[in-house]
Amino acid sequence: MEADPVMDVSSAAKLYKVGQLIGVLHATAPLR
């Protein structure tokens, strides 16, 4: 059972972007 490197990279990129978005929301939440 081999993992698809393209899927791994895209999913990792999505998790990274979501993580950054959550970080930005948490960072700016107190300013609202």
TrEMBL record:
Protein name as catalogued: Uncharacterized protein
Superkingdom to which the source organism belongs: Eukaryota
